[in-house]
Amino acid sequence: KELRQPKVAVQQVLYFQTGGPEALLQLTMAFHSWMPNDTYMLYHDFSHLTPWLETYPELEEVSQMADTDELVSGDIFIIPEIDCPAHLVARGVHVYRWMLGALSFEANQKSKEAGCKDLSHNFWLSQNLGLNVEKDFVLRPYISPNKKPSHLPSNEKRENLILVNGDDNPTVPHIKSVQEYCEATGDCQIQILKGFTRVELMDLYQRAKVILAMCMRGCERTPIEAVLSGVVMVTDYCHTGKDERDVPVPSS
Fold first, then answer.
1. Cα separation of 41 and 181, whole Å?
2. 20 to 30 A from 107, CA-CA: which of 118, 157, 181, 243?
3. What sign for the dihedral angle of Cα 94, 95, 96, 98?
C-alpha cells in the first residue's frame, strides 16, 4: 500500500491580534518551512489574515483550509486550548492542543478523556493543572522581528512610568496598591497596555521603567517585549512566574 504524507492543519484565531493568535501563525510557518505542500491554516474567514501580512508576508504562501472535513485518518490537527474535537479523534486524526494559557485541571482531564494530546508553549504549563508534557513537546513562540528594538536600550527618555500587562486585572492587590500610590504621591504614572498600536507600544517601552505582569496564565508577550527594550519586569510567584525557565528574573 502506498504511504500517504499526512496533512498538518493549525487552527487559527485571526480576528484577535494578540499573543496567542500570533503564536499559532508562527507555528504554522514553522511547519510550512518543513512541509510546504502539506501544511494548512484552518480558519472560517481568511479576510482577517490581512492585518497579519505586514508582519508575516510569507503567510500568503501557506495553503488555506476552511473546515475540518478535509482531515482524514493520520492527519495532524493542532488547536489552541479549546474543547477537544472528539469526532476528529474518532476519525483517526491526531489532535494536539497547544496550551497557550492555563485552563482548569477539570478541563484538561476532559480533553484527555476525549482523546486529545497536549503540547505546551512554556515549562510551567507543561507540568501543572493535570498536564504532563515532555520537554520535547514544549514549543516556544518567539518575538516577531518588528517588536524588537533596532538598537540597544537607552535610558535617556525614561520616565517614572509603570506599565501594566493588558491581560492583568487592574483591581488585583499588587496593581491596585501601585496605582493608589502613584495617584496619592504624583511620583509616577501607571498605564494599562490595552488598545495601543505597535508603534505606540514601542514608544511606551522606550519611556517606561517598570512593567507589572501578575499571575501570568502563560508567557505573556508584552512583558518580554518591554524587557527587550530595557524595562524592568516585576511579577509574582503565581502560575508562569513560578518557573525560572519561563521567567528568568531574580526572586526577592
1. 47
2. 243
3. positive
Beta bridge partners of 77: 9, 95
The backbone torsions φ and ψ at residue 67, rounded to the nearest 5 degrees and listed phi first, read -155, 175
If you write DSSP's letter for every residue of 105-123 in order, what string do you get? Answer: HHHHHHHHHHT-EEEESSH
SS3 148: coil
Report in angstroms the alpha-carbon separations of 235 from 51, 126, 150, 189, 249. Answer: 31, 20, 26, 18, 9
List Cβ neighbours of 121 (8 Å cut-off, separation of 6 or more). 23, 98, 99, 100, 138, 139, 140, 141, 218, 219
Please give the Cα distance from 109 to 137 (Å, whole number): 18
Cell numbers found for residue 99: 496550551
| Residue from 29, 37, 31, 19 nearest 59 by CA | 29
> How many C-beta atoms surround the C-beta of residue 39 within 10 A?
23
Distances (CA, A) of 135 to 4, 106, 145: 29, 23, 26
Task: Encode the chain (252 residues) as per-residue pLDDT tens digits.
Answer: 567 899 999 999 999 888 899 999 999 999 999 999 999 999 999 999 999 998 899 999 999 999 999 999 999 999 999 999 999 999 999 999 999 999 999 999 999 999 999 999 999 999 999 999 999 999 999 888 777 887 888 888 899 999 999 887 777 788 889 999 999 999 999 999 988 888 899 999 999 999 999 999 999 889 999 999 999 999 999 999 999 999 887 776
Q: What angle do CA 18, 240, 139 make, to 5 degrees?
A: 65
> Cell digits for 39?
501544511
| First-to-final CA distance of the chain | 62
